Amino acid sequence: MKHFPKMDFLNFDLSKLDLATFGTPDTEDARAARAARVTEAMGRFQRRQAAAFARWVEARGTQADPEGTPGTTLDMEAPGTPGGAWTAPDPAAAAERAAPEAVDLSAVMRTLRDGLAKGGLAVGGLAVGGLPAGRGVSVPVPPGARFEERVFTGTAGSRRYKVYVPSGHTGQRLPVIVMLHGCTQNPDDFAAGTRMNALAEEQTFLVAYPEQSQSANMQRCWNWYAAGDQARDGGEPALIAGIARAVVAEFSADPDRVYAAGLSAGGAAAAILAATHPDLFAAVGVHSGLACGSARDVATAFAAMKGQGGATGRNPQPVPTIVFHGDGDRTVHPANGDQVIAQAMAVSDLAETVSGGTSPGGVAYTRTLRSDATGRALLEQWVLHGVGHAWSGGSPDGSYTEPRGPDASREMVRFFLAHARTSAVRTR
């Protein structure tokens, strides 16, 4: 049987891979069928990967990441011109198929097991096909402001992070927003794409950007699916919480107004922080992510990304949550946005208000608010119609943004600043 050379496991289409077949008898017909599906998907997305990244590099006038060839999420095409939007692929092009070619499926599974054992496999787009790397992205810093790098070290390890200090900071107790990037992104890329620094300058708050290390995950994804990184004590939640506390301490920020938001794997990490650190985060934002506990290992992560995650239950302490998710997302199924909201709904008797609209860029959306007896919205969910796996309303200066959509960054800031921790959750 022919072996596929240098197989890129991270870029085949999980929607075409029936994981249940791994438990069936290993007959010749079964092996041939599995090999055909894997090869078909791999060929298609490898071609899309190369073409999309080439267009993105050309449009931005930057060079590829020298550390490796970045992937692409499964459902978005790079802009062909400066200022263009990431878009869903042409259906005709998406239907194109590679010629069948035999592969050794046992080698596929060995690659998976070996990569997971080394902490090197990125799972989801998120893991499956990361986002183009953010090397060479220039983040403007206005006079009087700072965008500086720090290193946090704690019992769970260490991580680099960047912190944006607006020019209006004069020692007052400012809010802090922790921004968690997606796979293969970095703080500069994520800051450019979300424009969160510009909002911080406008409204005067601090922004921290933790950076996932390549030693922890080869594609720099937050390990949202690993059981050890979904617990309060130890793992990545402790590291991110430690960074948030370090920023509060260094800049005398307001400890009752600390928030977290993220995209994709970063969105899943933000949901984990709501579950593990309700005493620290006053609200969280989850863009194209998954609920805490929807996966416990790499196999269940695949199912969760397809909208078949395990039961997560409700968080024991409520943390106000805002969710953005495109209903055209084929990397992380939009059902995961519903699951994040369900997990955050610690109070069941909330009043629900549903409205719709269209962004100035032409993206239709449905917005659902769930409010308490005082009228304060505790849960807010935006379903972006026709949008794939990308940050809504972001800048094309960063990777995987949909500039035409509603401004997710501005809406998250509005939602965050309406919430502060209460005395009931300060002592945990």
Layout of secondary structure:
Elements: H1 28-60, H2 91-94, H3 105-117, E1 146-154, E2 157-165, E3 176-180, H4 187-194, H5 196-203, E4 206-210, H6 235-251, E5 258-263, H7 265-276, E6 283-287, H8 298-305, E7 321-326, H9 335-344, E8 351-358, E9 364-371, E10 377-384, E11 391-392, E12 401-402, H10 408-417
Parallel strand pairs: 3-4, 3-5, 5-6, 6-7, 7-10, 11-12
Antiparallel strand pairs: 1-2, 2-4, 8-9, 9-10
Helix pairs in contact: 6-7
Describe this structure in words.
This protein is of the alpha/beta class and 428 residues long. It folds into two domains: 9-117, no CATH class; 146-425, 3-Layer(aba) Sandwich (Rossmann fold). The chain is 29% helix and 17% strand. It is built from ten helices and twelve strands. The chain has helices at residues 28-60, 91-94, 105-117, 187-194, 196-203, 235-251, 265-276, 298-305, 335-344, 408-417; strands at 146-154, 157-165, 176-180, 206-210, 258-263, 283-287, 321-326, 351-358, 364-371, 377-384, 391-392, 401-402. Strands 1-2-4-3-5-6-7-10-9-8 form a ten-stranded mixed sheet, sandwiched between helices. It has a two-stranded parallel sheet with strand order 11-12. The chain is globular. The N and C termini lie far apart (57 Å). 49% of the residues are buried. Residues 1-24, 62-74 and 89-135 have low confidence and may be disordered.
